[in-house]
Amino acid sequence: MSVPLSIKRGLIAGLSMSFVGGIGMVAVFNNKMLISPILAMGYATLFGLPLVIAWASTKREALEGFETEPPNVKDVLTGAIIGAVGGITTSLYVLLIHLVDVTDTFPKMGPPTVSVMTFGKEVGVGLALLTLAAIVAGAAGAAIRLLPDRARKAVGLGALWVLGLAFLELVVTDVFDFAPAIPKFLYAVNGGLNIYAAVTIFVAVTVLAYFFVGGRSVLRERLVGADAKGRSRPSTLAFILLAVGIAVLPTILGGVINELLINVSLFMLMGLGLNIVIGYAGLL
Fold first, then answer.
1. Where are the alpha helices (DSSP H) in 168-254?
2. Residue 266 CB partners (closer than 8 Å, separation 6+)
3. Hey, is 99 helix, strand or coil?
4. What span, in angstroms and rounded, lies between the C-alpha atoms of 153 and 214?
5. Hey, which of 61, 118, 147, 192 would disulfide with 36, CB 3.0 to 4.6 Å?
6. What integer is the mean pLDDT of 52-70?
7. How many whole angstroms separate alpha carbon 44 and alpha carbon 57?
8. Please, where are the H alpha helices in 31-72?
9. What dihedral angle (degrees, nearest 10) is formed by the CA atoms of 29, 38, 127, 10?
């Protein structure tokens, strides 16, 4: 990707980061810890923007008749440029609301936002850290492209598991109410995954996913190559397991999940009933 295009993508990242910070989202989301005590939800949202934009920007489209250039170190440089431009843009925005009082018009754009965006440090030091963190996030997003496809999927799945368990802390704690040692191992007292729990989950899921991806491909090939009778057996087994799971899970899941499932089911029944009644009335 050319430098001018990288700068444009960096400006998009910077404007997005400024918007997220300006509406107070970072400050509010920081009340939720993801990995205690190093990563809050607000900062994950803020620096996830240059990471995702850099990752998407370094994707190469395969054109018929043309050889696609494999990912290389230049992509990491592109991601770093996107992060640097995004970080500088956001820093200029934070500096502006620090020097100019606009709280009468934009009440969220005041000292609390400046403090959060500068990590509670002096403005100069905080803005330097903000830019550096955006550069690292952009470079990391682009560096993911350097991994082989199988390893990249495994790493992504590991990260999703860590974030998912961090977000669903209340649900996991409720589900494992019968085994309090599990939530105690996973979560810190002040909320969020413990560092050792996050590392353990990430490594375990990544390793399992790396080997499972290949196994799943082999299984898919076998199912595709099998005849109708050979494909019916796995389908029947899957249906039986699903039926047993539906019957048993309500007794295992906690009150939060059961209440959520009941509410969803009720609204589904109401929607289905309304659709049927309108259909019989000839209004469809």
1. 169-175, 181-186, 195-225, 228-252
2. none
3. helix
4. 11
5. 192
6. 79
7. 20
8. 41-57
9. -70
3-state secondary structure of 137: helix
Amino acid at 228: A
**Cβ contact 118:127 at 8 Å:** yes
* pLDDT value, residue 253: 66
Beta strand residue intervals within the chain, DSSP E: 33-36, 39-40, 193-194
| Cβ-Cβ contacts under 8 Å for 242 (sequence gap 6 or more) | none
Assess contact for 254 and 175: CB atoms under 8 A. yes
The one-letter amino acid code at 127 reads L
Position 246 scores a pLDDT of 73
Pairwise CA distance, residues 240 & 228, whole Å: 18
Higher pLDDT, 67 or 86: 86
Q: Contact, 203 vs 196, CB < 8 A?
A: no
pLDDT above 90: residue 230: no
Mean pLDDT score across all residues of the chain: 86
Q: Are 13 and 49 in contact (CB under 8 A)?
A: yes
Query: Do 65 and 54 meet the contact criterion of CB atoms below 8 Å apart?
Result: no
Amino acid at residue number 97? I
> Which tokens in the block code for residue 207?
């390793």
pLDDT tens, 84-112?
999 999 999 999 999 998 888 888 888 99
Structure tokens at 140: 């990391």
For the stretch 135-194, pLDDT in tens is 999 999 999 989 888 899 899 999 999 999 999 888 888 878 878 899 999 999 888 999
- Residue 216, pLDDT above cutoff 70: no
Tell me if 118 sits within 8 A of 91, measured CB to CB.
no
**Measured distance CA(2)–CA(9) in Å, rounded:** 11
